[in-house]
Every structure is written in structure tokens, then in C-alpha cells.
């Protein structure tokens, strides 16, 4: 059973998501919160697998709540997915840097929303190739001010190759095809790189790849 916490300051939005999730046999909404502060209190009580958190909320916004979740070892099993009305806006990079596993636009199709919750519960990042391309475009137009290369020297050559391909939006299967290795080996390279770079999840690994200078966005 996938345990979900819904966090949004709009009751109608929460009730809509809850109605959809409650129809699924493998998903349970354990609690709801109206802001980041309420979210943090409920997380300690319920320890959900997935926290769906709105970016913009009163009292404490979703990015600050995510930052605190990522910094708390007791909440390491909580996968944060940010909710936004705006798609790839100025908040998304901050959310990913804070430790979010990915983000969803609120007008997402129901079947895609349910799939995303299950993906997040597995610990995979919600960075589809189209979203990753937008992330790359943002780095092209607004590169990080001070690249930080710490930790890259610990990666093996294969791990660096795998991370670079992940940063360009390739899945583990596609990385395996490109490097002529098995999907299991590709996943191992990614997981080891995440551990060495202290990346909470694949989404944060992609951000680190760009901010460290391992990958340089290609201008079209």
C-alpha cells in the first residue's frame, strides 16, 4: 500500500486529488495539510511514502517544507513531489535543489497523475524527457552562478557517463543501450553515483550534474 500525504492550501484541489487516489486499491491518503508547517507535523506522525506538496502556500511554502524534509534523516523514506499550476516556472529549479523527486502540473491527466504517484513511491524521479529538456533549457538561459564540482572525483568513468546520460533525459534502459550494458548495471551506476554525490534521488542527481559542470547544456 502506497501511503500519500496531500499538502495544498486549496481544499478543492486536495479533495479532487483525494477522490482520485481513493479509487485505487494500492494507494491510501493518510492525511491532508494546508501548508508546509502542518505538513511537517503530519509527516512525523504518518511517515508517508509520497508527499504531494504545493509550491506556493501561506505560513510555509512547499520549497521550504521540502528543504526541511530532505535535511531530516528520519524522513529519508518520504518522496516529495511538488505540485504547481505553472509548469516549468522559476520555482521548479529551487524545488529540485531543495530535494524534490519531481513535479506535477495540476492539470495533469488522471492516469498520468496515478502513474506519477507510483513512480515516486518506487523512489524514481518524475523527470520525463520533455521536462528534462525544459530543465536543460533553463540552465542554458540561466546557468548556475557558481559551479561546485565537489564529489565528482569519486565517480568512476562509467558512473560519470551514466550520470551525464541521465542528465540528458535518458532512462536506465536507454542508458544501458547507449553504454552497451544491462539495465541492471545502468541502474547500479546511477545508484552508486547518487550515493557518492549525496543526491537524494535521480532528480537531484540531474541538477547536480549541471551545477557541477559534469554536463554542459548544448545551445540549439
Q: Could you walk me through the main structural features you see in this protein, from its secondary elements to its overall organization?
A:
The chain is an alpha/beta fold. The chain contains ten helices and five strands. It has helices at residues 11-22, 36-46, 62-71, 90-98, 110-121, 129-141, 157-167, 172-179, 183-197, 202-211, and strands spanning 2-7, 27-33, 50-54, 79-84, 102-105. A five-stranded parallel β-sheet has the order 2-1-3-4-5, with helices on both faces. β4, α4 and β5 (102-105) form a beta-alpha-beta unit. The longest helix is centred in the last third of the chain and has 15 residues, at 183-197. The model has no long low-confidence stretch (mean pLDDT 83).
Radius of gyration: 17 Å
Please give the largest β-sheet. 5 strands, parallel
Span of the ends, CA to CA: 44 Å
Name the poorly predicted regions.
none
Instruction: Give the helices and strands as they follow along the chain.
Output: EHEHEHEHEHHHHHH
Number of strands: 5
Report the structural category. Answer: alpha/beta
Oligomer: single chain
Q: Summed up, what is this model?
A:
With 220 residues, the chain is an alpha/beta fold. 50% of the residues lie in helices and 13% in strands. The longest helix has 15 residues, at 183-197.
Amino acid at each position: 500500500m502506497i501511503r500519500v500525504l496531500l499538502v495544498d492550501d486549496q481544499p478543492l484541489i486536495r479533495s479532487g486529488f483525494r477522490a482520485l487516489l481513493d479509487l485505487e486499491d494500492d494507494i491510501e491518503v493518510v492525511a491532508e495539510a494546508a501548508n508546509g508547517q502542518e505538513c511537517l507535523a503530519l509527516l512525523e506522525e504518518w511517515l508517508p511514502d509520497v508527499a504531494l506538496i504545493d509550491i506556493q502556500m501561506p505560513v510555509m511554502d512547499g520549497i521550504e517544507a521540502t528543504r526541511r524534509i530532505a535535511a531530516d534523516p528520519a524522513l529519508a523514506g518520504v518522496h516529495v513531489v511538488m505540485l504547481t499550476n505553472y509548469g516549468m516556472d522559476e520555482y521548479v529549479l529551487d524545488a529540485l535543489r531543495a530535494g524534490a523527486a519531481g513535479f506535477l502540473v495540476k492539470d495533469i491527466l488522471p492516469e498520468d497523475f496515478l502513474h506519477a504517484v507510483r513512480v515516486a513511491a518506487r523512489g524514481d524521479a518524475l523527470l520525463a524527457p520533455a521536462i528534462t529538456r525544459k530543465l536543460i533549457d533553463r540552465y542554458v538561459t540561466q546557468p548556475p552562478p557558481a559551479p561546485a564540482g565537489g564529489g565528482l572525483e569519486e565517480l568512476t568513468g562509467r558512473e560519470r557517463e551514466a550520470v551525464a546520460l541521465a542528465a540528458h533525459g535518458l532512462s536506465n534502459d536507454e542508458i544501458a543501450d547507449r553504454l552497451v550494458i544491462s539495465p541492471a548495471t545502468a541502474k547500479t551506476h546511477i545508484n552508486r553515483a547518487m550515493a557518492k554525490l549525496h543526491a537524494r534521488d535521480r532528480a537531484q542527481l540531474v541538477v547536480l550534474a549541471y551545477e557541477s559542470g559534469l554536463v554542459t547544456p548544448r545551445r540549439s
